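Progress against Task 2.4 (sequence-to-structure conversion) is shown through the following example record, which the project officer requested during the mid-term review.
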Amino acid sequence: MTPRTIGCFGRAMHSCRRLILIGAGCFSAAAAPANRIRCRRRFTSRCGSVSNVFNLIAPTTADFHDVNLEGESGILGTCGRDPRPRWVSSKRRLEWPNGAICVFFSGEEPESLRGPQCELCVIDEIARMRYQQQVFDMMMLSLRLGDMPRVLIATTPRTTPFMKKLVAMDGIRITSGSTYDNSAHLAPDFLRKIRELYEGARLGRQELQGAMILDPLNALFKDD
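Structure tokens generated for the chain above:
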């Protein structure tokens, strides 16, 4: 994500309760969950908030380890000069020196969200999950802490029945980005090849431009 993208994302998240970040496959949307949790952790430190519990839901257990926790754009990989949290594997959570906690959940087990509460929930790649509606429902019931509980959903725009319903909900703010927004961090040969193969195609609209494609595959008139 570029500095401009992160700045816009931060302002959007601060001003709304539910934000959907729709990104193309190489937009680096994985950095958004880590960035949001890190910013909220800093706010907790400055303001002494007692509501300092965050939940992060990944598609699978392997994803939250390999992408959201230890990946290049994950929480541990993007700490920089911030205090490094301690990973407590038995509790599936990160603990910061200021008392902030981030608990990890797998989208494969939506019932595990029943009970735990938080003030911020981040869902990564919900469009990939098998139980999209169940995960969303259990997540919404967990937002019981703080003055203004918030949700960030960062996902590739796969057109599923749940995603169509999600983007049409009231109180949702949507921001998006394309693969080309992240081109400074991608191999030139990769960019050249994907343009050659997918630019202008249906798959390219979704995976390169980050577009939610609502028209049927064989529709006479295409959605713009």
